[in-house]
Write a structure and sequence with these properties.
The structure is a homotrimer.
Chain A: H1 6-19, H2 29-41, E1 46-51, E2 55-56, E3 59-60, E4 64-73, E5 79-82, E6 97-102, H3 103-107, E7 110-111, E8 133-134, H4 137-141, E9 147-157, E10 160-168, E11 175-181, H5 188-207, E12 214-220, H6 224-240, E13 241-246, E14 257-259, H7 267-279, E15 284-285, H8 295-298, E16 307-311, H9 333-352, E17 355-358, H10 382-393, E18 395-399, H11 400-407, H12 411-423, E19 427-429
Parallel strand pairs in A: 7-8, 11-12, 11-13, 13-16, 14-15
Antiparallel strand pairs in A: 1-10, 2-3, 4-5, 4-9, 6-9, 10-12, 14-16, 17-18, 17-19
């Protein structure tokens, strides 16, 4: 599973295509169906159901919402809005309705975007009972006076909130947390790129012969889901999580973005910045004030987890965001592959970022180990210089990432040198 | 007493006009008369008398100096220099003299400014017995040979040094120290703007329903006065003073200036920089090397108080400084009002700059409190965003001023949000 | 011994001229002869002999190498390469050889520089038995087919490694370490400038009436010599050395260079940067990654000494480096004098960089001590201002170097003020 593997990009795009039509929301069968599909790719994925009304921190798990159909029939009998054509047409969590009303009455329940006349907006009303339709401004402008029949065939009542996690054990109990969300209907960059890339990251972690950290992959509905997850796992998360990322908006091919943890100086931040500086140096750098996804919960006071975000085009910054234009054409195999590659590198960096200490005082004699030219001239090779530079900083204080920073080299390029020096007995792991 | 109140500026200028003719010096009746006039505006102001010869740190309180009259009569009988026309004409602390002497002899006792031919310089000789006259270069150049009669009718002998303070109690014993000086004769920006603005700051503090800190307002002759004050109050000042400002040169309308405390990182420095960056972002920033007023004593090793200076045109930097051109036309109602406003904001910032901590783990559900739109769209309002940003940093570590810095907003604009969130029980004071 | 003393520059160049012809190597009589010549200038210099095969950290002292003669005779009978003309002609540590071989065979043992056709390269093979000749590319290109006689009359077998040190006691046992190397044959900037300037620094330190620190001057063959020195003195060095410099490439007149210690924030680094910023502000600033001399050992993990390097043109950066062009014309009296001057200033700064504390609280009354004008005007003199600024920072935390940094003044210009203020009893040494 190499990041240059174009098939991998296509595989991820195919998975997004499979998940795209499902009508996800905070709760309901769309979430369950999505998680069941992901479980086919991650058999150890565990699904959880939490009853409506359950308290979670300051919140309460809402009623479960399910939708069978919804449409609007114009005065001339044409079905002008049809849930089956786009699940964005219905305001999320709409209560059931079946009535005939005038255009004026209908208008109060319509949502459109005057500045994006061909886009259907994505609207929800989770915590206030409402019903409504979303449509393009162009369609809305063409509506004529008369009586419209509106049908929304939904159920909204006590049920469950569904989420899932997958814990892949490592050598130690300390955890890397990867969280993503599954509560948006047919939206591609924000949201399907998140669970898709997270699924392939989990598969990659699972495929490793050995891993230092335990990895926790979390698939939740945004906000209420992460709050429920935190409320059920707070102590363990605070005790174990040493780094992690919220995975969202990771599928288009326009740019890379970084959003820090609350204090911006966590290990996750350092790993993410290192990777982006080497792999995508023109990345966009946001601040924690620009946050908007589940890092709001993971980094909240009292939770304080070291969670950063590495994205492609960040939510809220691209014109297609939260509209029907955020579709399968916006995310690309290459975009997903690049996002996967950067996040995978972040995890690799966490795995290799250890402190080492030299086993000998003063420089070792590299020549007798075949690691230095025996002929003294004015020049030394790049490899020889790299070895000596690494040794010079293996003082038990500088970690591999620190040393990579000093050398201006990607951490993953130095890793083999650390292995070689360890094999020669010249350095030892100071974090063991 | 709002800072946009133009009457306040005029009131301050009127007070300066009343105080302007008084011949103040390190000691003497001019200081007493000035402090008595200020006591009319601050009835609780306490005056102190310290006898000549009293030791104060490395210094000794000097003899008291008083002046009745002084003049020079030219060979043609005209009174060409007259103390009654300007009290700057006499070198401060001149010993008495009444004699006739030649122009050559007289010249040794004259002071003028060749490069400012219409300005009378301000000269003193506190610690070496002398006598002298100050005059414009233009007048000096017109003097003709002949015999001049010089009369200086002063007394210089054992007496007292006079100073005053006003302590306004707050909720806690910790103090904010505001110091200014009253030892210059008819000089407006440097000096009268200082005691005038300080008086109105004291009246504003007194007018508050409640204040967190105890406020100590100090009116002293510069240098010897602050040294005397410190020598008599050192332990209490070191124990209680948490912030403070030396108030000087705060009345003209040309610019704002900031001079840090010795280490430049005190709470006073942070408050002053925050206020100036928002209210007068083009302010001049000096270093502690540019100091020249009583911060020299308050910030001296062994005293180490957190005293910064916020000024308009700083002493020593404007052409009228220490000359007769620093008169009532140099300070303006608007200049005084602006200076008062900035210092008042500094005190407000100190009052509100507390640390808070969230009472709930994870983000609270703002919607159920009417603090968040119930309709989920791509946009949130500025107020909603501000509330969430404040909550995100209410971690018991970030103070209001820290959070204002993160948000790039004036602290006083955030204060109402902190009140609202406290009222909703979402945050609590972590410094209580 | 003032640094403007042109004779001193010439004296140093003369010493380099005396040492230049000697064929130094890691071991052997060339090193001994060099150190004996230096002992004439530093009678207390102690020489040490360490037997071949002695273990030193990860290394072993090599066999001793001595050379009597070496040459190549061309097919036409001419002696075309002659050790007596330049000791660079022989690869260092060449084993003895005396044979006739074809040009093709000979070529395998020749070293030249195609891009510097008139330069003889400097090549060694200390830890692999070889023999070889170095020559100009121009000569090499002119060689014709035929049989060549090669003679290298060397001995390479058990013997000793020779090094020397000189410890000049000071008031305290804490040490300043100055190390330089003596293992290169006829090479001027890299190397003779090093031992020459170090010798004159030692003579200057010795000439001082009194010195605060003990000074340790070390003359070793590079790498193996410093490793041997460290292995024999590690505990004492770690316990005592508070600052120091590796002295190399300090004789040409083109630029100044600075290479930091491993962490770059040692006292030596701060002293060197202060001196260079004031004496040679356009100096080249390298990083520890550019290291290449004995700071590699002194700053190695486990040794961790605070050793920085102040150089003229740094090794490896100038075209003549490690070739016959690095000769006596490359180093100049002025270049050596400048290098000596900068290093001497570094030692002076270490001597004077102490913390002081004011003896009086608040500013002292300078006027009564004749240190301040008794006439108060708008201006004060530079000297008066400097005294007051120094006093303002004599808080027991800021050292003289810190204060010089705040004032933007060279430390050595402030030293007399500290003396004056100490003499007046206004400050006292806080480090005593």
């Amino acid at each position: 599973m190499r990041i240059t593997d174009v098939n991998l990009g296509q595989e991820m795009h195919d998975l997004a295509r499979t998940l795209f039509p499902i009508c996800r929301s905070l709760t309901g069968n769309g979430v369950r169906q999505t998680l069941e599909l992901l479980r086919k790719l991650m058999p150890e994925l565990r699904l959880y159901e939490v009853e409506s009304g359950t308290a979670a921190m300051d919140w309460t798990v809402p009623d479960e919402w399910n939708i069978r159909d919804a449409y609007v029939i114009a005065p001339d009998g044409r079905k002008i809005i049809d849930f089956k054509a786009s699940n964005l047409h219905v305001v999320g969590y709409s209560e059931p309705v079946d009535k005939v009303l005038s255009l004026d009455e209908l208008q109060k329940h319509l949502h459109s975007l005057p500045e994006q006349p061909d886009a259907i907006p994505y609207i929800t009303s989770y915590y206030q009972r409402r019903w409504g339709f979303c449509l393009t401004q162009r369609l809305r402008d063409s509506l004529e006076d008369g009586n419209y029949r509106v049908v929304i065939d939904t159920t909204l009542g006590p049920g469950n909130l569904t989420y899932a996690d997958l814990v892949i054990p490592g050598d130690i109990a300390k955890e890397v947390l990867i969280s993503t969300y599954v509560c948006h209907p047919s939206l591609a960059n924000n949201e399907l790129s998140g669970p898709v890339v997270t699924t392939f990251l989990a598969r990659w972690v699972k495929s490793l012969d050995r891993r230092r950290f335990t990895y926790r992959f979390v698939f939740v509905p945004e906000t209420i889901g992460s709050i429920v997850y935190i409320s059920r796992n707070l102590r363990a998360l605070k005790e174990n999580v040493v780094a992690g990322f919220n995975v969202t908006c990771i599928g288009d091919d326009r740019c890379y973005s970084y959003l820090p943890s609350r204090d911006g100086d966590s290990w996750s931040d350092r790993a993410a910045l290192h990777v982006l500086q080497h792999m995508a140096p023109s990345f966009h750098r946001y601040t924690f004030l620009d946050r908007g996804s589940d890092e709001r919960q993971y980094c909240a006071p009292g939770v304080d987890l070291p969670i950063a975000s590495v994205m492609r085009s960040k939510y809220g910054t691209y014109p297609e965001y939260h509209t029907s234009l955020d579709d399968l054409s916006l995310i690309t195999p290459n975009g997903l592959l690049g996002g996967f590659g950067v996040l995978r590198r972040c995890l690799e960096v966490l795995e290799i970022d250890r402190r080492h200490e030299a086993t000998v005082v003063c420089e070792p004699q590299m020549g007798k180990r075949g690691l230095y030219s025996t002929l003294g001239t004015a020049q030394v090779s790049e490899a020889v210089k790299t070895r000596m530079d690494i040794l010079a900083y293996c003082d038990g204080r500088h970690s591999l990432l620190d040393i990579a920073g000093v050398l201006g080299r990607p951490a993953w390029e130095l890793s083999e040198y650390f292995g070689e020096l360890t094999d020669h007995g010249l350095i030892r792991d100071a974090d063991a």
